[in-house]
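Worked problem 6 (solution included).
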Amino acid sequence: MFRPEPIKIIAVVIAVLAIQIAFAQSNSVGIGTLTPAPSAILDVDAAPGNNKGVLIPRLTATERLAIPSPANSLLVFDTDSSCFFYWKASASAWKSLCGNGAGSGNGMTGSTGNTGATGSTGSTGATGSIGSTGNTGATGITGATGTSGNNGATGSTGITGSNGTTGATGPGTICNTAADNYLTKFTSATEMCNSSIYDNGSNVGINTGSTPAASAKLEITSTNMGMLVPRMTTTQRNAIVSPAHSLLIFNTTTNCYEWWDSIGSTWVNMSCGGSACTPPSAPVANAATNITASGFTANWTASSGATNYFLDVSTDSNFGSFVPGYNNFSTGNVLTSNITGLTCGLTYYYQVRAATTCSSTNSNTITAIVPGAPAQPGTITGNTTFCAGSTYTYSISAVTGATSYNWIVPSDATINSGQNTTSISVTFGSTAGTVSVDAGNTCGTSTQSTLNVTASSPSILTTTPGSAVCSGTVTLGATASNGATVNWFTGPTGGTAIATGNSYTTPSLSATTTYYVEAVDGSCSSSPRTAVIATIKKVVAIRVKAGFYGYSAGDYSNVTVTFNQTPTGNTEPQSCASGCSCGGTGTNFQLQSNGTCLGIGIIIRDFTFTTYPTSVTISMVGQGVHSYNPEFCYVFTDGSVDCIIASGCTADPYYYTTWNVTNTCNLALPACTE
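Solution. The predicted structure is:
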């Protein structure tokens, strides 16, 4: 006799389970079907709507790698790489089922290559956040019913009544082999016993007995049956509402296992059936191009017959994980793909597969280093000495990975053009300093490169003009500031220098000429140029100074000085001895004596000629006249005066003396006038 409460509980549990789970005589388990396929140890059917898939355990890469002693063939879905992985015990490694693609979308997985040598252990990463608590396991079966109490005494048999309506069959008995943690099933219409499903609250096993693998949330064991996942057409698959990431189905339209990639919002072909396929040869991956701080272009060669290519990008040379979006990425029938959204300063790896209805093995692996902040620019090319107000060009070679350049110049200099490029045009003021430049990109800015620049301001310090009489060469002079050179020019601007140095001798000149000098230091020159004059002097007047004296008073009569040409200029003051009278006009001058005059008279006359005279004669007539040697002075166009004293005519011209200024006493007048 059973206790009523446990019987009710068991009946309810069985009724609920019966909705979802059925057991065939062969111990096959069916979910969603009362007739699981005999060849399947587990048959999951999404009928009648065929709008659901199956989810296997989903783990991060860290969680997957932390599974202790994984069982051979253990299957998980890695949420970091959006890929199915299984444990290959013979290789002691996790193998990806998402390595290859085929057909439209992503295709079936190629075989995994041998595991490379284990690299050195990296530093321990930061502890990840604690994952969410898993679902509560199913409630275990109700324990056995206790012993029944003693039956009471049997009463007397009453009159047999008519048969009533047959009632429902009771729950029956529990078999004597029932054990803990097994889901129950009816072994007959009146008996319940163990099913092939074992659930200890942590692990579930189908046909495993009481020892499902500790590394598996669900283990299915069989040596003569497989497993069926929900089967549906493409139309039914597309009708699934909000499919979960990694949801697995079998597409009866394409004969492909497919799973939902919520990151790419697409169904991914994991494996396709159909006729045999000869995969194309593996493409050859070529070096990356257009490498920037955030991406690069992957390149590869064509494989004969290929209609699509699939690309993996990883920071792990063994491709244990993938850059989001670039795991089995379908590029289409092209030979390049732009990889974007990468991180500055990291090293990336990529490999490619060619596909038709099946895919090739992996290509070789290409390494692409995404640069960080650009390197320091190289040497700045340009003048180290500048002239105030002048314009110069400064440049550098392009810096790999740089997308911008920032130039800095002295405070009173101006960048005319080229900022943010490798070459600038600069107009300087007078302030020395540096020309600097750095390179930048989205990752940062480089160290500056610098060129010291100094100002040069040469100047003319002194000039020395020169002159010649009538005509001839003239030597001119000039000095410049320290380190500068003097250049000579014929004009105040433009032209070519006619000489260099502190002195310059002109060609023969017949008229006053102005020359110009500038100081030059490197590319700098003084401005404006300084004038230096070569003067050609011409006579505009003759000045005569004559003197005479007498011996004793009373010895003199009138003494007359006669000029053969009347002077047109002013007569300068004359001096006359005390007691004498001096005077005269025109060409004559007289020293008159009244018998008591004893002294000296001096005559000074300026002759200004409109026509140069052929001769100027000075005569002194009178008794007792003793004359001084006359002085002839020449007045030139520039106002200067040159004087010559006539001498050696007569020893003692007692009575008279005559000088012919053109040909007497070695006196030479300039042969020109104006």
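Discussion: Residues 30 and 387 are 94 Å apart (CA to CA).
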